[in-house]
Amino acid sequence: MARAIRDAGLVRVLLAVGAWLFVACVLIQIFLVGLDLFAKVDASFHRDFAYIFGWLAPALVLLSRTRDVSRRTQLLALVLLLLFAIQTLLPSLRQQVPVFGGLHTLNALAIFGVAVTLARRATMEVRGSPPAAT
Amino acid sequence: MTGERRAFALVAWVFLGGVILQVFLAGLGAFKVTDWTTHAGFGWLLGSLPLFVLLPLSLVAGVTTRTRWLTVALVISAALQPELAHARTQTPVVAAFHPVNAVLIFWLAWSVARAALRDPPRTATEATQTAPPTPLPDTKP
C-alpha cells in the first residue's frame, strides 16, 4: 500500500482521494436539500455544510498544480472551483433575478458531473493508465 | 447507424434534456418562483419515457449488453422517483433521497445517451455469439 502510494506520487493520490471526498460531500449536500424540502429540517444545515466542504475545491486546484497531473485534470479542478463559487452566489442573486433560483439546482448537477469526471481521471492517473477521453 | 439505433439515441438525448429541464423546474419550485405542479406534472410525462420507449428500443437498437443494463437501471430509478416523493408523509427521511435519486437518474441518462452514440454497431460476430450454438459436425468415420 505504502509503496503503491509512493510510486503513484503522494500528491496525485491526495488529489484522487480529495476528489472522491468532494463527490461524497456533494451527494450529502443534495440529501440535506431533500431533508429541508421533505422533512422540514432547517435549511441552515445545507448552507453551512457547503461552507465546510467548499474548502476542498481550492485545495483540489492546488493539488492539481503539479507536473505529474495532466493539463486536462488541472483544468477540471479549476472549472470545479469556478462552478462552486458561482453556486454560492446564485441563491443571493435570486432576489434580483428569480430564475437564478432554478440555475442553483442545475449548477449543482454540473458540479456533480465535473467532480465525478475529475475523480475518475485522477484515479486513472494514480493507476498510471492514460485517462480515456470524456 | 440503423434506424432503431438513431431512434434510441434521439430518445436518450431527449430524455437527458428533459431531466435537465426537470431539475431546473425543481429549483424554481424550491425557491418559490413557481409552484410544484409544473415539476410534478412534467415528472409524470418524463418518467414514462424510459419504461415505455427507451427500454423497448434498447432491445432492437443493437446496443451493447452494458448499455441495455444501464437502461434497465434507468427504468428502475425513474420508476422509484415519484414513489420517493410520495413517501414524504409517512417517512420523510426516505423522501429526502428524491433529489439524490435525481442525480442518479441524470448520471444514468448521460451514460445511456453517450453509449447510444458510441456503442459499436452490432457485428456479425456478436450476432452469432447470441445465436444458439450450431451442432458440431459428425466426427464418426
Features:
heterodimer, A: 134 residues, mainly alpha, 6 helices, 79% helix, B: 141 residues
Your description of this structure?
By secondary structure, chain A is mainly alpha-helical. Chain A has one domain. Chain A contains six helices and no strands. In chain A, α2 runs antiparallel to α6. The longest helix of chain A is centred in the N-terminal third of the chain and has 29 residues. By secondary structure, chain B is mainly alpha-helical. Chain B has one domain. Chain B contains six helices and no strands. In chain B, α3 packs antiparallel against α5. Chain B starts with a helix and ends in an 11-residue tail after the last helix. The chains are: A mainly alpha (134), B mainly alpha (141).
Binned, the helix content of chain A reads over 70%
Can you tell me the number of structural domains of chain A? Answer: 1
Elements of chain B, N to C (H/E): HHHHHH
- Average predicted local confidence, pLDDT of chain A: 90
Radius of gyration of chain A: 16 Å
Q: What share of residues are in beta strands of chain A?
A: under 5%
- Uncertain spans of chain B, ≥5 residues at pLDDT below 50? none
Whole-Å distance between the termini of chain A?
A: 29 Å
- Distance N to C terminus of chain B: 47 Å
Largest interface: A-B, 25 and 26 residues
Overall SS class of chain B: mainly alpha
Give the overall shape of chain B, derived from the CA principal axes.
Answer: elongated
